[in-house]
Amino acid sequence: MGPQHPSMHGVLRLIVTLDGEDVIDCEPILGYLHRGMEKIAENRTIIQYLPYVTRWDYLATMFTEAITVNAPEFLENIQIPQRASYIRVIMLELSRIASHLLWLGPFMADLGMRMMHNYFRIGGVAADLPYGWIDKCLDFCDYFLRGVIEYQQLITQNPIFLERVEGVGFISGEEAVNWGLSGPMLRASGIQWDLRKVDLYESYNQFDWKVQWQKEGDSLARYLVRIGEMRESIKIIQQAVEKIPGGPYENLEVRRFKKAKNSEWNDFEYRFLGKKPSPNFELSKQELYARVEAPKGELGIYLVGDDSLFPWRWKIRPPGFINLQILPQLVKKMKLADIMTILGSIDIIMGEVDR
Amino acid sequence: MQGRLSSWLVKHGLIHRSLGFDYLGIETLQIKPEDWHSIAVILYVYGYNYLRSQCAYDVAPGGLLASVYHFTRIEYGINQPEEEKQKMQGRLSSWLVKHGLIHRSLGFDYLGVETLQIKPEDWHSIAVILYVYGYNYLRSQCAYDVAPGGLLASVYHLTRIEYGINQPEEVCIKIFVSRKNPRIPSIFWVWKSADFQEQESYDMLGISYDSHPRLRRILMPENWIGWPLRKDYIAPNFYEIQDAH
């Protein structure tokens, strides 16, 4: 099955061995969209690199920006104002909804949009929310909830859909952990592992929401997990929009001089650069692994800093790449038509698989 | 009436059959021949360090033959002196020292994740041991170039997935190899999520992983020459300034 096919999964080539209608083996060939993102990162400052990151997962662009900005923030111990953190959470959850909807689109019907935001900055966000945005956001939430209920009635009770999807592509919890899956694929197999609850980053612990999971481990379970996540995202957005504090939206005093590392905010010793982070943002010689819960799974960055403007190693851990490993195992003994169902339920984006 | 070791093995999903207890109350288990070498390592790690006796007998005329192993654990009554010396040693590091497994502790990374360095020869056994210890999720495997003209490093981030925990245990393992002959044993057979990731490290940096089922270029075209992510890599036919050390 060649690199281009009409169902918009991106450029993925599958070499499928068939016996009549049954699939014996399947080998995915990647690399058609490889752009050398990691090598490029070694020669760009973080600000220069931000426009690149939206091209990894172009449906949920906020997550790629969030992780690109979070990794250096952890490295340099930068605190973000509360308001910025809430704004980020709202944006992330909206982006998660967009990604799941777009997954639902080629999976079922036709809708979707693609936006390159370039919105997050180190220390906060680039611009504050415009006047009236919050009311529009709340209206969208109500409209969307009704839409989700409508989709559920159309789809989940539909016997044709159920027959195509139930029992297809089963994976057990133990195997899912061993293969390194993450995100809805892991949660659909009974493992309640959600980085937003486990890692507690970005003020997610101030909202009241539950981890969505299912026990069955087939494509239907994955579908239900994603629909459930969309509803939980709406809940989070409604709570965040209600509780959002005032205050600054960006931490302007982002870079301190190395000597005064232990000083407090308003101390006499506190020194700062009183301007927005320009290309002079330096990474110290430490390394760390930062991660977020993207809609596709665990998106991680392993950053080795170098005491200079450019990172020494910027390794992207893409959820789609690791979730795709299990495809050959899932399609064994399935029919040819099920391959697309399984591929769709794994929810991969070639932009981040190949980078 | 399941014995203690039997319940522990069941909890870790190791196939065996419990044969009850013998006349002096010793727990007896039956293991399949195929599983024996891995379960033997696991029992050793569990703590049975003394093979007291090994014998064999004929079960029935025309029937099976049995090979019998009696294990026990010999322990010392005093604390080992290593534990007192290095106070800043991470928890996993102290556990490995206690069991005599050679490694070097590289301290902690910036978020407090313990980092250990392991030699390539020891890696496959220590990988099994870590799996048994509880690290069941290989989060990310990557590789990088330590210094121009220096070593190559292969990095593994492991964590334990469990229900209902905050701040899960994690560890970062690094293996350093020379540029001339970079070979590391593959741990695909322990954690399957290393499949594509080791292929990518091979593709980008040239570290070959022994006993990986299909090690080949995954992102670059099959006939590409050179290891792109090395610092001394020069992109061919690219006539602008390149930063190769």
Task: Provide the descriptors you would attach to this structure in a database record.
heterodimer; A: 355 residues; alpha+beta; three-stranded antiparallel beta sheet; two-stranded antiparallel sheet; globular; B: alpha+beta; five-stranded mixed beta sheet; 22% helix; NAD (chain B); membrane (chain B)
Helical content class of chain B: 10-25%
- Please, what is the average pLDDT of chain B? 76
Class from helix and strand fractions of chain A: alpha+beta
- Rg of chain B is 23 Å
Rg of chain A over CA atoms, rounded to whole Å, is 21 Å
The shape of chain B is elongated
Biggest β-sheet description of chain A: 3 strands, antiparallel
Order of helices and strands of chain B: HEEHEEHHEEHEEEEHE
Distance between the termini of chain B: 66 Å
Largest interface: A-B, 41 and 40 residues
Order of helices and strands of chain A: EEHHHHEEHHHHHHEEEHHHH
Beta-strand share of residues of chain B: 25-35%
